[in-house]
Design a protein that fits this description.
2 copies of one chain form a homodimer. Chain A folds into 3 domains: 82 residues, Arc Repressor Mutant, subunit A, CATH 1.10.10; 101 residues, D-Maltodextrin-Binding Protein, domain 2; 100 residues, 3-Layer(aba) Sandwich (D-Maltodextrin-Binding Protein, domain 2). Helices cover 43% and strands 22% of the residues of chain A. Chain A has 12 helices and 12 strands. A 5-stranded mixed sheet of chain A has the order 4-3-5-12-6, sandwiched between helices. Chain A has a 5-stranded mixed sheet with strand order 9-8-10-7-11, with helices on one face. In chain A, α8 links the parallel β8 and β9. In chain A, α1 packs across α2, α1 packs across α4 and α2 packs across α3. Chain A starts with a helix and ends in a 5-residue tail after the last helix. The interface between A and B is large, with 35 and 36 residues. Chain B binds a DNA duplex through α3 and β1.
Chain lengths: 301, 301
DNA sequence: TCCTGTGCTGCAAATACTGCATCGCTATCG
DNA sequence: CGATAGCGATGCAGTATTTGCAGCACAGGA
């Protein structure tokens, strides 16, 4: 990357002799000598005074020498920074995610990754599914965690996991003891749904209009904690993927029941990355870690 | 001096396209492309992401780009500094001088030189003759102004002027109306002499011992102004070269009379420079200016 | 005085570089 | 959906450039 002249000049000044410097540099003195003369002529200045016992820096030579050494120093620094990037010792990752994912697999995955690569920083932005997709497509996010059912052309999914949308309710709910819920059962209860049902395309809406049903939706919210508290202590039913309620399901404070709809069952969540440019090492490593975490999720229990 | 890669890389990042950058740089895209790939491989990192419509900097590439630009910036600065040195727009000159010279030709010469090259700075150190010689020999002074009768082996004299040592006295002094003074006349008066008469070799001492005379020296001093004031209003006689008393002689407040001694008449003052290394432009220019001033001195009046 | 070590240079061989032509790929446009 | 244009990457051959070996002149020290 840098001309060898920088090193040559530095060593020559250090040795005070072209021949000695050439010996140190494992080259012929004639070659070194010509390199020096050549640059001297290009700048129109002599860098060294020539004596019988070697060479001695001139004022101009001292100025140039300082420049050479500064450059070489800075180059070493850059080399370190680059190798940090290459070895994933440093870096920054922009993540866009659904908040359901942000609250489940992301914390653990990031903790694990952070243990291996402690100097890496993160920006985590929660957003609606189509926004996440868009951010990855625009390069505003390195990694997206969102539904991967209909991908943006310049986004591809690194790993996918089926996360069917089902009904979330309290254990004491009238439907809670069913094995599976039919779509038309839902019409009898107040629904709590994700805010993105407002967006132009909503899978839930698609299903309902297809079946000629309308959902008496009580609340649209983009806040998963709010949805949880609204479901708790009421007869309301949430329409969500299981992934945002893993803890509550495990502790039996909420219950998840599949809804018998092929379309809703098709829903998949994925690790989204741009298909335009290959991911830098750090981002690639993290996305693989996330993909592994996603595959490791047990959503069928 | 610097590898062309720095410019190439900068331009490529600027254009966001290898082919466009190659066009700007008047080269083939293949060559440019290979240069980039080559350094990428050397550092083990890609600098650019490749797209169908050009290239885009990676994180590592951004780091390297900043380094390239910093280096090129600094190089431009250095180029200016070097050209300043070459064109004598800037620089520093170390001068060692007898204080007799410091008070006569030096001020005018420096004023003239400074008018042409206003950014040059000076260090002016007054010293005894042998000290001046030593400083030039050691490289502690670029230019010396001192007696050039016996030169140090690694010092040479650029210009010389005969400045015989004579007797300095008041116009009313008993000897003042003589045309020339014999050495033995001096024994009748208090002498004021240069401090270097203490040094191992003193021309005045040589003469006196050769003639079997001893000088009743009242004052040895390295201060020329002190010598002047001691001579003024007394019968004392100073033994000095005329060069330190030009103004007083011109205004007739002091008088200079030659002493009839071949050795004392032989004394010469010169512009001394090292014979080991050729002088840088600024120093060379000033030494030539000083030599001219020295030759222009009228010491025979 | 010779002798050693310096910087410098001519010449032939080795090396690196350059540009042309061409490939595979992707985004765009009809 | 297919054609097209523009991009980066690469094989190849000719051309510069660089390198190292001798050998030169010169200066300082024994």
């Amino acid at each position: 990357m840098h001309d060898k002249f920088l090193t040559y000049f530095d060593e020559t000044a250090r040795q005070g002799s072209i021949r000695k410097a050439a010996a140190v540099l494992n080259m012929s003195s004639s070659s070194l000598n010509r390199k020096i003369i050549s640059t001297e002529n290009r700048l129109g200045v002599r860098f060294f005074d020539r004596h019988a016992d070697g060479v001695e820096l001139t004022a101009a030579g001292a100025v140039v020498l300082e420049h050479c050494r500064n450059t070489l120093m800075d180059y070493q620094r850059i080399l370190g920074a680059v190798s940090d990037i290459r070895d994933m010792r440093t870096g920054h990752v922009d993540i866009a995610t659904l908040d359901s994912v942000a609250l489940t697999i992301l914390p653990d995955a990031l903790k694990q990754f952070n243990a291996d690569y402690p100097e890496i920083t993160y920006t985590i932005q929660t957003a609606q599914p189509d926004e996440v997709m868009q951010m990855v497509a625009d390069g505003d996010a390195d990694i997206g965690l969102s539904f991967s059912n209909d991908l943006h052309p310049s986004v591809r999914s690194q790993a996918e996991k089926s996360t069917p949308i089902g009904a979330i309710m309290e254990p004491g709910h009238p439907l809670a003891e069913r094995d599976v819920i039919e779509p038309h059962d839902l019409g009898n209860y107040q629904m709590i749904r994700s805010y993105d049902a407002f967006a132009h395309r909503s899978i839930v809406n698609d299903v309902m209009t297809e079946l000629g049903l309308s959902l008496p939706t009580q609340i649209f919210t983009n806040s998963l904690p709010l949805a949880k508290s609204m479901i708790t202590g009421s007869n309301s039913v949430g329409l969500y993927s299981k992934i945002g309620f893993l803890r509550e399901i495990e502790t039996n404070s909420l219950r998840y029941l599949p809804v018998n709809s092929p379309i809703l069952k098709e829903l998949r969540i994925g690790v989204l990355i741009s298909s335009r440019s290959s991911l830098p090492p750090v981002q690639h490593g993290l996305s693989r870690r996330l993909a592994k975490a996603l595959r490791g999720l047990r959503l069928d229990s």
